[in-house]
Amino acid sequence: MLYMSKILLRNKDIPNSQSLEVYTGRGGYNALRKALSLPQDDVISMVYESGLRGRGGAGFPAGAKWRMLTKYRVKTVYLICNADEGEPGTFKDRFIMEFDPHLLLEGMLITAYATGAHHGFIYIRGEYDWIAKILVKAIDEAQAHGFIGNNILGSSFSFFVDVFRGAGSYVCGEETALIESLEGKAGRPRLKPPFPAASGLYGDPTLIHNVTTLSYIPFIIGNGPDAFKSAGKAGSGGTHIFGISGHVNKPGIYEYPMGTTLRELIYEAAGGIRGGKHLKAVVPGGMSAPILKADEIDVSMDYQALNAIGTMLGSGGIVVLDEDTSIPMIAQKTAKFYAHESCGQCAPCREGTNMIKYLIDKIIAGEGTAKDIEQILRLCRYIRGSTICAFGIAATLPIAAMIKKFRNEFEALLRD
Amino acid sequence: MKNISLHIDGKYVQTPGGSTILAAAKQNGIHIPTLCYHPRTRQAGKCRLCVVEVKGLPGLQVSCSIQAQDGMVVLTHTERIIETRKMIVELYLSNGKHNCMSCEACGSCELQAVAYHLGIEKSDFPAVDKDMPVDMSCPMIIRDMNKCIQCYRCIIACNDIAVNEVLDMGYRGSKMTVVCDTDKPMGKSSCVVCGECVQLCPTGALTEKKAIGKARHWETEKVRTTCPYCGVGCQLQLHVKDNEIVKVTGAEDVEPNYGSLCIKGRFGYDFVHSPLRLKSPLLRKDGRLEEVSWEEALNFTAKRFSEIKQAHGPDSIVGIGCARSTNESAYVMMKFMRAVIGTNNIDHCART
Lengths: 416, 352
Hints:
By secondary structure, chain A is an alpha/beta fold. Chain A is 43% helix and 13% strand. Chain A is built from 17 helices and nine strands. In chain A, strands 6-5-9-7-8 form a five-stranded mixed β-sheet, covered by helices on one side. In chain A, strands 3-2-1-4 form a four-stranded parallel β-sheet, sandwiched between helices. The radius of gyration of chain A is 22 Å and the shape is globular. Chain B has a five-stranded mixed β-sheet with strand order 2-1-5-3-4, with helices on both faces. A three-stranded antiparallel β-sheet of chain B has the order 10-11-12. Chain B has a two-stranded antiparallel sheet with strand order 6-9.
């Protein structure tokens, strides 16, 4: 039987969960109190030991990221919360921010305390305007009660948070593009190195985390790293919020331990395929995660298992496709999205995503040739790894997987 | 800085610490193709043609931006690298409108050169229709964005070298293009027409209006000279065909301008071949200007200076130096006024 464990969504269905009163009434900000009583390095160690990995999609170990910052404590350190949730099929961060904004703020406060940051920004996607208002209200409330501001809870720690709304670019979820955008420039990724830990916002050391990652911090500090680890499986500790959409009976967000199988999520949590149809394919972790065929859904949803079968956990946005779906049409939508969202800065991505879109459009229009399929695969192969940021990978992996796994569907559309 | 040593393509090479991989390769005679990199605009990391493989680092690394490290093992010509470069150049050719036959940049075009060296006769990708209007609004510069490869050189030139801050990248994705101010035609923008962008453009996207159709790059003789317009002494490269200046560029390897020029130095060369140009002194005789020899002109001037000085005193004469003159000429002018004429009435046009 599927066991739903709630770390992040435990307050979601409580009435008035956005208010400070409800949050503190359910034990909120106790983890912050505990953290402030500990030396900074102990807090970092707890996060390090928990094995928490970034939930934005890349899965970088959070503790390791924090440790990089410690040598820069003498400088101004910025903390940025990446709330630019733009990965198609992903809608986990918005629920945390909408229903439990103080959980995120507490996570940011503990993170800031441990890493020496005194100013934080929440970079939220422009479309989430009502959520931005919820966050601003929560920040004001926290500030009025001494959780944010100077000398928090009587300690020597001070921290301020600002909410910054993005302007609708997908690539601003990439950390250096986000920083550029936050600085008021066009959202285009920077060349790396230097990485934000060394030179980020305004050239100062910067720590950037996804909303979900930061929201796990209060649980880890409050309950200890082992409690977090044991909530998942080895190497992939904790839970994950899965946003299930597409042709299922009960689309929505579900928090389950890492290691839950994709089959369980689709057929038990989300109630199976709509209209009793057969499953054709699943995108397991947001649009940039390579697609899985129906016979691959017994995979355990964790970093290692998904990597082993050539895809990734990504942002946990699961898109379920039934038997009536045309994979080339999905490929067309994907290609259109990435061609539109490419920042245009580097040649392989700008020209390549546009060419992939052009070729898929050509195939869908019934004018494609076998060579066009080969050229798309060629583009997917060589755009990867040659671009400034990971966008090039995100744009090509899903297309290549769709062609590889459903090649017959593409071939059926060819002219000859 | 202390030298470091690394392996590039199996060759043991040395380079000063702090060099990029690209610089290290170049110093040791290993060619890595580039399009966005230029010594004056430095690394941009945009074209990704200079990608190399570095042992221990994932994916491909851009050699123009990554510092060479002691003991690094670098490969510059693996199959993956060559295929990536070919893909990029083919994409450039398919997504732009490049016709070497008619292009002004033919022969000096870096995209053409890279395509040649990679053995690309024709792109394997279908040509994507690109038909952006050619911006002819600037009196001196033609902007054909169909040939632009978004290398950022002109933008770095405009913002960081000339510091006119006119050009920037506008729009996103495949629609990304260089814009003047808020996407105005160049002739209606705040552009001061220094031409720095034209000189650094690797393709025919930015060309000089006056040079169109005059000569192919290889037909001209390059003559180094000093700009006659002011005392800075900018070094010019005249592009001369059949004894006619068809184009002027800044000499990039030398003081004081390292390639930069102003609108006059770069575009104001018509006077050289103008039939209206004065080639000998003119002296007004009976109300009409007549050509005379230098000897006659100087003798007349000296005579009149002496007469005026005797009749009205030395302070009746004022000398104003010209901004085109060098420090040395200005000094001589000052000396002439004080010692020969005997007045302190000496000034300079740049001060008034």
